Amino acid sequence: MNKKNRPILTPPIQRVTIPYFLTRFLVKNGVSRFHRITTIENFDKLPNKRDPIIFVSNHQNGMMDPMIISGLIKHQLHWLTRSDVFWKPLIRKLLYSYNQMPIYRHRDKFTDIRERNSIIWNCCVERLEIGAALSLFPEGNHNPKKTIRDVKRGLGDLLGIAINKHPNLKRVKIIPLGLDYEDYPGYKRRLSLRMGDAIEWNDIINKETGVIDFNILSNRVQSALRKLTTDIRPKAYYDELLPFVRAMRTTEAKNDAWLSKSAELDRIAKKGESSEWLEDVSAACKKLKESGFTEEMRPEAWGTEECEKRQKKIWTKVLLPLAYLGNLPTALQQYLLNRRGDRLKAMEFRSTLKVGAGIFIYPISWTILASIAGWMAYLNGVSFFGVSPFFEVFIAFWSWATFGNKFYGWFQEHIHDHRDAIEGEQFWCSEKKSPLRNAWIEYIAVMKKQ
Questions:
Q1: How far is CA 201 from CA 50, 53, 175, 176, 246, in A?
Q2: Domain check: are 341 and 354 in the same one?
Q3: pTM attached to this predicted model
Q4: Are residues 407 and 292 part of one domain?
Q5: How many domains does one find in the chain?
Q6: Is the pLDDT of residue 385 over 80?
Q7: What is the pLDDT of residues 16-49, one digit of tens each?
Q8: Integer Cα distance of 395 and 383 in angstroms
Q9: Are the beta carbons of 392 and 383 closer than 8 angstroms?
Q10: Same domain, 14 and 108
Q11: Residue 381 zone, left/alpha/beta (φ > 0; ψ -120 to 50; rest)
């Protein structure tokens, strides 16, 4: 379709939809089967479902971030999605049913882009007016690094339009969310989702013009997100600081432990104002790499000192055959999805493909296999409980597949810890590791220098 002929899209005004309600369980199930969710924190602060809300979050992991937020938050969330996926009528209708709204970007090169986006902003405002919950990534796009980037003007513009059209929308709550991944492309690696206090914004409205002070709002959003997730600063020295931050194990920290980690990240940012300290960090990191350190290694397994070694979980060896048996109905599908996903050059979309496809492929394949097994039982007249042989075997196979896969995922969480414990012990105790260990100790000492 020629751009000149593309229609001006006007999404419906709605708060909740049945398709979203029915699908959220699948999304939540897919997310929890792939990630090891260690922390869902402060969700007692979640506003009432009929309050107008704008959730704001950091954005690292492609389409995985909105899937996680939509799956773990009970509110039906409304998202802005790039406009080019809305052109086919059937797809457009499907996206509308999941509360998606198009947003036009400068790269779309529409001559009437302002008018088009004005319609979308008005739709957002009207949805807020009836108590909808919008979810935005104020950084504007995704970036795989553990940083909080500059906030775009969209949030401030939306709030300005909202209160000028409906003054009572000053009641909108801006709720910050912090996503923290240990290793987001990895299966059953840790994930944290932390929720913060509502961000105050009514006091930065210009009483005469109704315009929001963008700079103050931006600073408040960034400050709120830094309290909830990992933000490595200064960004110019990201690669030099990353090994230490990974060894801090921020993703598994909860409550007071997280406050301590957050304070340490702020200390590093403050120390980063010293060029002398940054030179020392760079020199120590260079020596670390010369001693054999690579990005594939896991500082999370080492910790920042020897006492932080993980405890071995020998019992995982006993359960290994049972875990593989439980996952047997899913093993081939999982292997193929992992193989396809790991071929993606953009790492931040690997888990999106694996989880997104798995949400549908797993239950569909289990149903097909269960039907085949049930049909074979029916043909052979095998019945254990005096019911239909087909349904007996169908239910038994489906239960094996779904609970077996869940057990396998739980097992993988603990086998990761066991392997980390072995790697940590080798790192701190093996004579062969002494050059790398000594360089690591020196690097940690520089990083912890007050």
A1: 20, 13, 11, 13, 34
A2: yes
A3: 0.92
A4: yes
A5: 2
A6: no
A7: 999 999 999 999 999 999 999 998 998 888 888 8
A8: 13
A9: yes
A10: yes
A11: left
Average pLDDT of the segment spanning 286-298: 95
Distance of alpha carbon 194 from alpha carbon 196, whole angstroms: 7
Pair (157, 184) in one structural domain? yes
Other CB atoms closer than 10 Å to residue 72's CB: what's the count? 19
- CA-CA-CA-CA torsion sign (104, 107, 113, 118): positive
Dihedral sign computed on CA atoms, order 122, 126, 129, 135: negative
- Whether residue 3 contacts residue 379, with contact meaning beta carbons closer than 8 Å, is answered with no
Q: Identify whether the C-beta of residue 78 lies closer than 8 Å to the C-beta of residue 127.
A: yes
Q: Where are the beta strands (DSSP E) in 106-172?
A: 133-136
Last residue of a domain, one of 190, 205, 231: 231
For residue 146 the two structure tokens come to 């553990």
End-to-end CA distance of the chain: 61
Closest CA to 227 of 186, 175, 276, 188: 175
Using alpha carbons, select from 103, 166, 94, 176 the residue that is nearest to residue 130: 166
Tokens matching residue 113? 């882009």
Contact 223, 157 (CB under 8 A): no
Asked if residue 236 and residue 188 are part of one domain, the reply reads no
Task: Say which CATH number the domain at 85 has.
Answer: 3.40.1130.10
- Measured over the CA atoms of residue 256, residue 43, residue 214 and residue 102, the dihedral's sign is positive
Tokens representing residue 147 in the block = 């940083």
Residue type, 179: L
For residue 246 the two structure tokens come to 């990974």
Same domain, 218 and 365: no
Average pLDDT for the chain: 92
Residues 6+ apart with CB under 8 A from 95: 81, 85, 86
- Secondary structure class of 180 (helix, strand, coil): strand
d(CA 128, CA 377): 54
Ramachandran angles phi, psi of 6, nearest 5°? -70, 130
Q: What is the share, in percent, of the chain residues with pLDDT greater than 90? A: 78
Looking at the fold, whether 295 and 205 belong to one and the same domain comes out as no
Residue that finishes a domain, picked among 214, 231, 248? 231
Respond yes or no on whether the N-terminal peptide bond of residue 234 is cis (omega within 30° of 0).
yes
pLDDT band at 386 (very low <50, low <70, confident <90, very high): low
Q: What is the pLDDT of residues 412-425, one digit of tens each?
A: 999 999 999 999 99
Check whether residue 192 and residue 274 sit in a common domain: no
Q: Note down the domain range covering 319.
A: 232-450
pLDDT tier for residue 297 given thresholds of 50, 70 and 90: very high
